[in-house]
Amino acid sequence: MLRLLAAAGTEPQLATGGSALRRAHRDATLVLVGADVLEAPVVRALPRRPGVVVVATGELSPAEWATAVELGAERVALLPDDEGWLVSRAAAAARSPVERGWLVAVGGSCGGAGASTLSAALALAAGRGGAEALLVDADPWGGGLDLVLGAERAEGLRWPELRELRGSVAGDALMAALPEVGGVSLLATSRGAPFPVPEEALTTVIGAARAGGWPVVVDLPRPGPAGPGRAAEAVLAEADLAVLVVPARLRAASAARLLTSADDGAPPWATAGLVVRSVPGGLSRDEVSAVVGRPVLAELAHDRSAVPRGERGEPPAVAPRSPFGVVARRLLAELPSRVRDDR
Fold this sequence. Notes:
The chain is an alpha/beta fold. The chain has two domains: 2-95, Rossmann fold (3-Layer(aba) Sandwich); 103-342, P-loop containing nucleotide triphosphate hydrolases (Rossmann fold). It has 16 helices and eleven strands. The chain has an eight-stranded mixed β-sheet, with helices on both faces. Strand 1 (31-34), helix 3 (41-44) and strand 2 (52-56) form a beta-alpha-beta unit. The radius of gyration is 21 Å and the shape is elongated. Residues 337-343 have low confidence and may be disordered.
């Protein structure tokens, strides 16, 4: 394999486990998996993504084929017969790499915190930066993010049509099939027949958009009694930035502390930064930070236009001096420098 990749003019990275494997699997333009490690737990635990090729020296067993399908492999390359194809595939990946889009996960510490509106504002602000963004509604009981953007009558696919999505998906085809508002492609839930968004469909959609270079904002639901759920955990594990919106009240801050801290291991929201939503007579941002035990990334001032705009079906205002515009740009600046520079 090293000889073939050298012939393709590439510098491969060999990763066998741990964070190095997860990072390489996430960031590489092409992932080659040896058939001899298909059954390894660290490989089976990897999420599906485009650009995966299984390399073997002989025919796979039925169990190995099943694992290759689970990984989303686009092809099984049999050596030496497929050497020419593999060199061409690696060379193409090296010639035209696509910078991976960033991922921001947004949630609220309590109902009515404003997480959905902030998610929409983030996607709109990112879309105004020149790269169309994808806004994913992962809260089936939130009423539908298309209402927040005034796109409830816009043509395009919603979650009911994509709930069975699996495997490798072309990002450009996905984005073209969704409703679009103000530089934002939106994947909304159904108001008529709500259902939990399947983990595999959610990660497939996010992976397809990011692989094509599109930034993604996901509006996550409030965790239930059993926790945030596997789909939300998968999103938070891959997010470049996790944001928890906390109204400046003691109960909301106490609820946020429960989401970000636990006695038995690290909860999914453990690394989240806080956006404190100001309320009359409420706590200060420093007091909220002290209660939750997490840093405050931004403070959301009261936006008198937010409720009237929402009732009229108008997107939140994200002008540079508007409350949501100020916070959205502050959060985009918090993204790791690599993904921020990619924008």
